[in-house]
Fold this protein.
Amino acid sequence: MKRGLVLEGGAMRGLFTAGICDVMMEHDIWPDGIIGVSAGAAFGCNYKSRQPGRAIRYNMRFANDRRYSGLWSLLTTGDYFNAEFAYHTVPSTYDLFDDAAFEANPMGFIVVCTDVMTGNPIYQKLSTSDRESYDWIRASASMPLASRVVELGGHKLLDGGVSDSIPLAYFEQIGYDRNVVILTQPDGYQKEHNRLMPLMRMALSKYPQMIEAMDKRHVMYNQQLDFVRKAEAEKRCLVIRPEEKIPIGHVSHNPKQMHLVYEMGRKTGEKQIENIKNFYA
């Protein structure tokens, strides 16, 4: 049996996921592998490095720091979340990422990105903790319109959620057969067609396959929700969802709002912790 943890994205909704993951770590629950998409990758890496509390800590600390994120960063660097400061300076200088613990932990860690040339997902396993690994995580979380295309590993990459938002099927295919899936939308949610597609078409005009993937993302996502529900009904996975819509947007500069969402995750994690233990047993 291989125990997996599947973390979907959702930008700042990912702080809900971070709260659950921190509770799991505090209860000494260590799956064999994690697959993270977008915010699920950016915050989930702290699970492999065994650093509960880190995601909420640095997000609150730098919530209003223009070096970290905001329109100033978008206008001056092309990235709403400053690529150099957020993904390299913070983990190496201000809130240290434990590279040694990440590398020593045998837990598998896979991030999902989207290849803008093909519109297809790229699954990258990260075993080392270095500048290139940080950039793979950045690529997974690079939202269209808010980020530059990331050139890495022979690919041109953006947000993994465009091509594989909830990668349960992929994780099952590579051998993980007991998966906890953490979603950031409540039960009954259905994604709608992206209203920003006219802007997407202009901004990504050089990448027609990426535009097509984005145009059909809501269809893909809703099909994945159906797949997850079927797997849940068959007891192949344990799904953890927020009980209500998470009260935060894709971006936020409000530390209190961030903490509220994180605490929602912690409360959900505590409520589900025995179910998680029994499922993984």
